[in-house]
Amino acid sequence: MASFVRLLPGIAVVTGAGGTGIGAAVAKGFARSGCSKIAITDINPKTLDQTKDAILRINPSIHVFNKPGDIADESFVDSFNDEVFSRFSRLDYAVNCAGVLGGDVIKAVEMTTDAFDRLNNINYKGSWLSCRAQLRNMLKQQPLQEHPRQRGSIVNIASQLGIVARPGAAAYCASKAAIINMTRANAIDYSDDGIRVNCVCPGVIETPMTTTSKAMVEALKPAIDIAPMKRMGTPEEVADAVLFLCSAQASFIQGHALVVDGGYTIN
pTM (2 decimals)? Predict the structure, then answer.
């Protein structure tokens, strides 16, 4: 349950943290791994409150700041991250999980501009805005005394489909590939500042987005069958990878896209 990694008692931010998906698992993983302060955001206030309650059940002494909002809204992203930094005086770990699936299998000529914009505004633009705000704040602080080489660590959530493609998902694949290369470019730009930037590329993960619709389950079945492990992953399995990349155990890992997909991309 995302607890094998021990983190310094720092401050973590998680976007897309509502509900029972990857973001919520990451937030709870931070709680189990030693973080003393955790800031969470999601577009859904109700599910965000549920994650806050779950964190406090793990450790009632953790200071949790939760604020709902739209990750594609520049003013919200900047104000949320600035408020986190103002409250906690630093930011050690940032994980950008907010995102949407591509929906139905749809080829490029059949996709509307509105659908394309919605997908990219959340998946890519939202991650880009979040990284920019987090980097700005991390640059204001000094490294922790216990970890002098690291001023901060950012992990973005991309996808196996940012590495390989599947039919009927041109826009989604492109949005996740953009996150991977944004991660790499930021890693180059901010290495000298002691900020590590990596990403995790999940395969098919058992979350409400992948299991509530019968049509979605059917659409994802070929990807599950192709992967050698032939099952969905769990949010906690992705969270374990995220926490590892945040930790001092990954102190020499920079600009990496860690695939957590049951072997899908080795085919």
Answer: 0.94
In the chain, alpha helices (H): 22-32, 45-58, 74-88, 113-120, 126-138, 170-190, 208-211, 214-226, 235-246
Quick one: 106 exposed, middle or buried, by C-beta within 10 A (0-12, 13-18, 19+)?
A: middle
In 3D, which of 239, 231, 240 has the Cα closest to residue 261?
231
Q: Which CATH superfamily is domain 11-260 in?
A: NAD(P)-binding Rossmann-like Domain (3.40.50.720)
- Could you tell me the CA-to-CA distances from 265 to 67, 158, 184, 200, 216 in Å, in that order? 36, 14, 19, 13, 20
Q: Provide the residue ranges of all domains of the chain, joining segments of one domain with +.
A: 11-260
**Positive or negative: CA dihedral 246, 259, 5, 14:** positive
pLDDT value of position 103: 61
- Neighbouring CB atoms inside 10 A of 215's CB total 10
Residue 119's CB is within 10 A of a number of other CB atoms, namely: 22
Residues serving a catalytic function are 172, 176
Rounded Cα distance between 62 and 81, Å, is: 19
Rounded mean pLDDT of 29-35?
93
